[in-house]
Design brief:
heterodimer; A: alpha/beta; 8 strands; B: alpha/beta; Rossmann fold; two-stranded antiparallel ribbon; tRNA binding (chain B)
Chain lengths: ~375, ~400
């Protein structure tokens, strides 16, 4: 029987119509999913158990319920199911999913109760933890003192308040959008790392796409956090003894959006991103938002250059940092990175000397209006 | 509302806000703080030694004018014992360079420093206007840097200082991040770069000074500088600062990242430090050599980056030698390993180059090929003369090493 006539057959299976064109390949939706997921699965190979391995490692996957992290969860989960289905297949790791309530970070975010329910039903094998951002006080016991010390005289810390009110008072004391976004990211990272430590996880799988990593690298550099790139953008050991990995680093945001569009099971889980509006005063944006916009706009024109950024940052070596003093708040190196001596931008700024915080954190302090 | 008093002396009226830390300072305190910071940079990095002869790369623009003024002041105040002189390059840009050179000449008188002007025409037989007419605006800085080196060599001076400021360094950091060029990123942030081809050291004492503060310094000391933008080097100047300190933040990040560049890339420090030439070629503008008018603040970063990007896109497109284009491809392919650049000397002029023939020579060759025969004769003599000089220098160098 002759094959079905196809106007534009998929390049891989030749059995279905082309739905997407990805990196010059015309693929049907199944082959597309396979092609994209392979880039992630390949990165999981380092967890393939060796003969000597006794305990299966645990991996923490922080889920924001946005497109990227949801797609990552679906890919990793699919791989685990595939491994379980094999007669003698070995599962690489156990997955632990952490959901931090977006409404606890920004009250304008809608409640995730419905999405969370669907999530639990859809992906049943991982363990789940759901937290709010102010739970950081429980997971990082020193955080109260650190914040008190960090905020300085400008912020009156009231220990009688609940964790939630206390954290929102601190966050409200930060005057600029850039500093607020910067500290939110620091707090989020601390919480995720602390949860990973508590559950004995070996690594954290962050769901950041290539585009997001590029934006983070550019923003981090602009905020004086260049030395933290070794674990904020590159795969590497974080200051808390947990590896940070970014398995989606080869994939652009647009590709992840396409992937999500052919995964019906994700439709009720993913909270779609609010579209970026064009009518904003650049002055009111944070550097992070500015960079996300920049990467999105320019990435559409020059995708190669944007992937350059994340790839370049991934080449930095973290070994040089080890041993130095680290910042009490963000965990980044304090003062001069080893190897830089004499006069540097650090000594020129003057205000971070003798402090327990790094240059980048000092820039975001509440009493500094810049 | 009563006028704000100075953060430092608490007496005089504050007239400026420092972008770096938002301190409000009066005129006298600002000038003092600015000079002290440059002094700290110089002493902290052991930039000069007593009795050293220094050529200040002067364009008549604000950066080099401020640099000359500050160095003269500090030299007298702290007894550096430096022998300062001004070195200017005349690219032969009509209507821009003529006027700015007049400024340099006035500066030379005001600061009582000897001035040497080296002309493009004299060095290469081509003026900038003619170059641009022929090939567009590419590669202009390759030539400018070599001209500075040659000028210094002619004066027998081993150290050229330039007015590169924090904004320029920050721009280099961001751009090389976009280009994915870590070796160059780490080079661009270091204060001193020795150039192997000519043994001439280059440094940027204003590395930590915000462009805005340089303008303010020039304004408050009423320095005489040239304010028209270089017509071949457009820049965005208007900007809304999101975070005024970010220029120095980027410099800080650049320094940190430079220390984290894998060893094999920053390899035998020598080849790394020797490529001073390369780093400037890519600034995408005439660097601080020109007089930009208003202090363009960081926050136009987005725009600025776009500009860099377009410049970059153009670069790969129009570059004369196909080699350049090939290189980019290679870097993309071998994404894992950081590509190390091996440095040799240009076969023609002896200047450091990662290719067989350096960019400037390729450029000149392309230019000369299209030029009417009669003009070549005049031009070639000069070119011959100077390249013989360079060859001789190369030979002496080889025998020395």
């Amino acid at each position: 029987m002759p094959a079905k006539e196809l106007s534009r057959p998929c390049m891989d299976c030749k059995e279905a119509e082309t739905v997407f064109t990805v990196r010059k390949r015309q693929l049907c939706s199944d082959c597309y999913k396979h092609f994209i997921a392979f880039k992630v699965h390949r990165r999981m190979e380092i967890y393939r158990p060796g003969k000597t391995q006794e305990v299966r490692p645990k991996i923490l996957l922080p889920l924001s319920l946005g497109v990227s992290s949801s797609v990552l969860l679906s890919m990793v989960e699919a791989q685990i199911q595939h491994q379980l289905a094999k007669p003698y297949g070995k599962v690489f790791f156990d997955l632990h999913v952490l959901v931090i309530d977006p409404s606890s970070i920004n009250p304008s975010n809608a409640s995730i109760d419905d999405n969370y329910k669907v999530l639990l039903e859809t992906f049943q094998s991982p363990a789940y933890t759901r937290l709010s951002i102010h739970d950081i006080f429980d997971y990082v016991p020193d955080m109260k003192e650190i914040i008190h010390e960090y905020a300085g005289s400008q912020f009156a810390d009231d220990s009688s308040l609940s964790n939630e009110d206390r954290l929102s008072a601190f966050r409200a004391s930060i005057s600029t959008a850039t500093s607020a976004a910067d500290l939110d990211y620091v707090l989020l990272t601390r919480l995720v790392a602390a949860v990973a430590q508590k559950h004995g996880c070996k690594s954290v799988f962050w769901g950041d796409s290539d585009s997001r990593l590029a934006a983070r690298a550019l923003a981090g550099v602009s905020k004086g956090r260049g030395a933290s790139m070794t674990w904020q953008v590159s795969d590497g050991m974080s200051p808390w003894g947990v590896r940070f990995e970014f398995p989606l680093r080869d994939l652009y945001k647009t590709e992840l959006l396409q992937y999500a569009s052919v995964c019906p099971e994700l439709s009720d889980i993913v909270i779609p991103d609010a579209p970026l509006s064009d009518n904003v005063l650049t002055k009111n944006l944070s550097i992070d938002e500015l960079m996300i916009r920049y990467v999105q706009n320019q990435g559409a024109k020059y995708p190669g250059i944007m992937s350059n950024v994340a790839r370049t940052a991934n080449k930095l070596e973290s070994s040089c940092i080890e041993g130095g003093a680290s910042c009490a708040l963000c965990g980044g190196p304090r003062g001069n990175v080893k190897g830089n001596t004499g006069v540097t931008a650090t000594t020129q700024s003057g205000d971070s000397e003798g402090s327990q915080f790094c240059y980048g954190c000092m820039r975001s302090r509440p009493d500094l209006k810049c | 509302m009563a006028p704000t008093t100075c953060f430092n002396c608490k007496e005089a009226r504050a007239v400026i806000i420092r972008p770096k830390n938002r301190h409000k300072l009066c005129r006298a305190c600002f000038i003092e703080v600015f000079e002290t910071e440059v002094h700290e940079t110089i002493t902290g990095t052991n930039l000069f030694f007593p009795g050293e002869r220094i050529a200040i790369g002067a364009s008549g623009g604000k950066d080099s004018t401020v640099l000359a003024a500050v160095l003269k002041t500090l030299n007298e105040r702290y007894n550096y014992g430096l022998d300062l002189c001004l070195l200017s390059i005349d690219e032969g840009i009509r209507g821009y360079r003529d006027d700015s050179l007049e400024t340099v000449k006035r500066n030379a008188k005001q600061y009582d420093m000897p001035l040497t002007i080296v002309g493009y025409g004299e060095l290469y037989g081509w003026t900038m206007d003619q170059v641009v007419e022929q090939i567009g605006k590419k590669g202009k800085l390759h030539i400018l840097w070599r001209a500075l080196d040659r000028g210094a060599a002619r004066l027998d001076i081993q150290h050229v200082v330039t007015g590169h400021n924090a904004d320029d360094v920050a721009e280099t950091v961001m751009m090389n991040l976009l280009r994915g060029d870590l070796p160059r990123l780490s080079r661009g942030t270091s204060i001193v770069t020795a150039s192997g081809g000519s043994d001439i050291k280059r440094s940027k004492p204003l590395k930590y000074a915000y462009e805005k503060e340089i303008v303010l310094y020039a304004h408050h000391r009423q320095l005489d500088y040239f304010t028209t933008e270089c017509i071949y080097s457009p820049r965005h100047s208007a900007a809304v600062p999101i975070r005024p300190s970010s220029i120095l933040d980027i410099v800080k990040s650049g320094e940190d990242m430079a220390a984290l560049v894998p060893r094999d890339t920053s390899q035998d420090g020598k080849s790394c430090k020797t490529t001073a030439a390369a780093e400037e070629e890519n600034t995408g503008s005439c660097g601080s050599q020109n007089g930009r008018t208003s202090g363009g603040e960081m926050a136009a970063m987005e725009k600025q980056l776009t500009e860099n990007e377009t410049a970059e896109a153009h670069e790969t497109e129009i570059q004369l030698p196909r080699k350049g284009a090939k290189n980019t491809k290679n870097t993309v392919k071998s994404s894992k390993a950081v590509k190390s650049q091996t440095l040799g000397h240009c076969e023609r002029c002896g200047y450091i180059s990662s290719q067989r023939v350096c960019k400037a020579c390729t450029l000149l060759e392309g230019l000369n090929r299209n030029r009417p025969k009669t003009a070549i004769e005049v031009g070639m003599e000069d070119e011959e003369g100077s390249s013989t000089l360079m060859r001789q220098m190369e030979r002496t160098q080889l025998t020395n090493s």
